[in-house]
Every structure is written in structure tokens, then in C-alpha cells.
Amino acid sequence: MRLTILATAAVLTVPTVCPAQESSLRLGSDVDEAVLSITPEDIIRRIGVMAHDSMKGRDTPSPELDEVASWIGEEFRALGLAPAGDGDSFVQRYAVVTRRLNTAVSGVQLPDGRTWELGTEVARFSGETSSDGVTGKVVVLSGRPQNTDEISTADVNGRVVLWIIPRTASGDPDFGLVNRALSGLQAANPAAVILVTDRTLPSWQQTIARTSRTETRTGAVGGLAPPVLEVLDRTAGSFLRDYNIDARGSRERPFSSRTLNASATVVTTFRILEAASAPNTVGILEGSDPELKDEYIVYSAHMDHVGVCQPNAADQICNGADDDASGTAGIIEAAEAFSMLSTKPRRSIIFLAVSGEEKGLWGSAYFAANPPVPGEAIVANLNADMIGRNWPDTIVVIGKEHSDLGATMDRVNAAHPELNMTAIDDLWPEENFYFRSDHFNFARRGIPILFFFNGTHGDYHQPSDEVDSIDAEKESRIVKLMFYLGLEIANTTARPEWNPESYRRIVQGIND
Known about the structure:
ten-stranded mixed β-sheet; alpha/beta; disordered N terminus
């Protein structure tokens, strides 16, 4: 097979490239030799280590996941990568805590001495404060905006926002508007946001129940986010009436903002029930260009899975061979190929195996907020999640439309017909996969991404996602395509660029 690929590569016609691009397609035989190191045998061996029953499904956190993280670090060390974890190690650890809202000290304190109690009168959506809470002048937003810019440009800096939420046509609180506008409002740096709604009693009871439940979360990934709470009209009404504001009557008027001569204090703190930590594994291949080596491409995949998922079944362990031992094996294979190049890529490359993806993209969120290099120096993320199953000649590459990485992907794909692998656009936009894997934590910080994904299957999150179901030959061709793509990005002087509308929507959170 290796001889066949080498012979095929030798007669390929290299497409014409603009000199300004300084394309990796110009490079010679050491690239061919590097590509030959990406083999089905290596892929299946590496998947077999991570998806073995002894790893018990690599739950986050678990001793078995730690073992996998250390093993990946040793693989990186053997390939000559530089450690980029904590200290002089390949492993970066982040806190994982089990906690419950401390309702005894949390709540909203109003200037007249009243308190709205968290967990009974106030529900929590997100965010938290220190034990001292946050205090600010109260600003009331009400009415229906013409677009979300009206909300995001309101003067809320350092203030406690009471946002009276309009209704939908069916009479329910318009949480679609909240979802579209909230990130822009938070970017304006309020001390806290309190949504004033008129939910039905059953809906409110469910919301309150979610507020008080135990949750497992990672440690802070960049500071405490401003708390977002919800309160009903019947609770907020008497306070608002003191300032001649009728919550119900103001909902469908034109949008307005009014700062009150009053301050409020919001406290949302938690009691820690259990504290642990989980690993990411990080290695760096230093680039060869004196200037561009200070910029970085990140190859990422998640090494965790869902653990012992069916404790009463004959086969209890969800091994996660495709999800995502396949992607993790792929980035190790890519690292091996890059390490073989006699002339390293101009940019540096980070190889990243994260954990906690199955719990809510924990590890990638932590890494993106705490990278070992300046965040603004990361120019692209290529993420692989489930690349070992389904069609033998096709891989879905999600995110092509959002930056010029899509055009680069198409160009590189066309330049390598010997791979018999077609990179196609997202087949399932309604599933929102763009927002569901680790690349999203890079995208939301302004880093262009591409997400390699072969789709789900009947073995998804089942014990039957075993090593013997992997099409390692197909995966080897995907990894070769990812290698060629990364080489092209690393050797092209210009950084990848967002499409402006995508940047506005994904990074800035502006949807109108």
C-alpha cells in the first residue's frame, strides 16, 4: 500500500499557486515520506490503547482518563514535541467541582431593605459572583427592540439590569430574543442581568427546581461571568411600581432604557460538595520561520468518553472508539507526520487532547481561556471528533462557510485526488454540530475553525462503539488530508480570515 501511494504521489500534477501564498504545495519528498507515516496500523493501535476495556470509557474525571492523558504525553514526547502543560509536563489540569447554590446567602438585595431569595423568588440561569456579590445602579430595559443592537448599546456598564422581556405571538416570554441578544448585552459589562418574565406557574416551578440542583462544573476559565437571573412580574412588580414602571404594560412598547436612582446587590455563590481535577494533554512543534513561529495552529480532539454507561448490561463500558479515540489517534498521527519533516512548518503547531467534552466542552473551554501561548497568536483550530466510521470516501467539514479556511480546504482537497476523500459541507445544520464540539470554544474567541466529523451512527454513546468497528484505512486518508491542510495554513503568510457576517454572529453574538 505504501509503494502504491508513493507512486501515485510522484505523478500528481501540483496546481498553480499564487507566489504570495507561499504554499506548502511546493514542498518536496520529505512531505511524501511524512504522509506515509500515517497508517491504518498505527491508527488502530492507538485507538486500541484508548478504547480498551481497562480504560473504563475514559470518564471525566477518572483515574483511567488520567492514564490516557499521560500516555498521550509520552507519545508526544517520543515525537519530539515540547511540553506545554503545567510546569515542564505535557498535562494541563483544570478544576472540576461538584457544587450546589448556597441559597442561604444568595439573592438580590434592594435599596428599601427587601430581598428576593434565590431558589424561591429568583431563578439562576448562569454566572456567579464572589461571596461579597456585585452592587450597581439599577437600569431597566423594556419594550420590543427593532434589533439586538438597541440592547447591546444600552448604557449598562457596572449596573444591575432589570430586563423586562417581551412576549412572543403566543404570549410566552420571548426567550428567542434573550438568546440572540444576551451575549451582546453581557459584552457591555453589566454587574448582573435579571430577566423579568411572566412565566406560567408550572414553568416557573421547573425553572426554580433547576436552580437548586447539584451541578458539576469546571473551575473558572477566565473570571466570574456576570450572573444572569430571572424573576417573575409578581415579585418585581412592587419594586418597579415605586418608580412608576408597569412591567406588564411596558413589554410591547418601543424599546427604552431607564437608569433608576437606586442600587441593588446581587449575590450568587455556591457550596463546594466535592473537588477534583481533569487533564488536557498539550504538545508543541516549534515552527521554522523567525517571525511566524510565534503564531500557532491547534489540532484538537477529545480523549474522554462517557465511562461505564450501562452498569446492568453484559457489556457495561462505552469504549468510545469512534467518539473520540479516532480523532485523538488522528492528531497523534498528524503530530508524527509533522515531526518527520526536515524543514518544519513556518508556523508552530499545538497538538491538543482535551477532556470533558462529553460533560460540556470543559477541557477546551479551559484551554481556550488559559492557553500556553498568547491567545491572539492562535490563527486556526482544526478539530477532529468521530472520524473513523461511515462513508469510505467522504468527510464532513463543518465551518467551511465561516472563514477563508473553507476555500483553503477546497483547494487542498482538490490538490490531492489520490486520497479519494471528499470534504463536504455540513449535512446536518439543524443539529447545530458547529456549537457541539471543542472547536466552538476557539471560534467564540475569534479563532477560525474547521471541524472534521463523519456523523453519528447506531453505536453512538453505546458499548458497541468498539475498536473493531473502526475503518482505519478511511481514517488514515482523512488524517492525511488534515495534515496537508495544516501544512498549507502553517506555511501561508496571511492569517486565516473570518467572513464578516459570521464573525459578527458567532464571535460578537450579533444576530440582526
